[in-house]
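[agent] plan:
  1. take the single chain provided in the ticket
  2. run structure prediction with default settings
  3. attach structure tokens to the ticket
  4. add a short note for the reviewer (M.T.)
[agent] executing step 1
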Amino acid sequence: MNRPPMHASGTGPSPARDAALLPYSPLRVMTFNVLYHGARSAAGDWPARRGLVEEVLDRWRPCVVGFQEATELQLEHLVRDHPEYDVVPGPVSGQTRLPEWARRGERVQDAGEWCPLFYRRDLFRVAAHGAFWLSHDADEPGSVLPGTWLPRVVNWARFESLENGRPISIFNTHVDFLPWAAKRSALVLWERLQRDWDGTAQVVMGDFNAAPGGAIHRCLLRDCARHGGAPNFRDALEAAAHREGPNETFHAGRGRRRWPGRIDHLFFRPAALRVERCVTITHGLNGRFPSDHYPVMVEFGRRPHRPHASP
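[agent] step 2 finished; step 3 output follows
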């Protein structure tokens, strides 16, 4: 697995530093739990949702989008539907460890999920990429934390601007929903983020199955930096100059926010990056939604003043 070189770097906030860190401005990054096909959900099956996913990407045109819960079929469709993007698919997370006697029949998600990164081919090239698992054997494909049964993968890529060569590293994941896995997952994630930290822009996004204030937030935003010396992450929604849409992201496919609320997040560092806006996208049609989660888009960098600018 390729890793960027380590070196020290200041993180004081300033407009000049913000511009120097971003590979492209405004930089739109989206996290999108796309809901595996065949799921029993009010959002409907994949054929009913596929076109809505396409509409979201066409409307908002993110520079980089990270999907979670994508199955092999959905990954094939997403690649076919969005030719303006290249993809870092990463590996499938791995087969469920739940014993057969405890399962309710074979389910699509038992084979694992992809957490692919789609990126605009006209803006970026991939300088390095890799994957690891949220387990005590992070380099072992399909490994799990004790007391859990679904392998959880982190797919990452270091993108470089075709225009100026500036890099940004983006990590995409789907964290386990079992409460005892949250802190251990956060520590594994932090160790890798710390190892790869070189002072350039770094974004962690995905479905964290955790509301603000929980173990993952405490780890990334406050606690872990005390042990490693690197700066904390910031929550993009909390840092945003402008917020649009509801805070909550999980809605069970009905468009009505449900517990545990805001569980899809984007975290970033260094703090010098400016978050212009954070948008929770509630797009739907006739009571149908692209997923049981709302996608979240974060726009970094100062927006150029243009009358009638596109979203």
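[agent] step 4 note for reviewer: The chain has one domain: 15-300.
[agent] ticket updated
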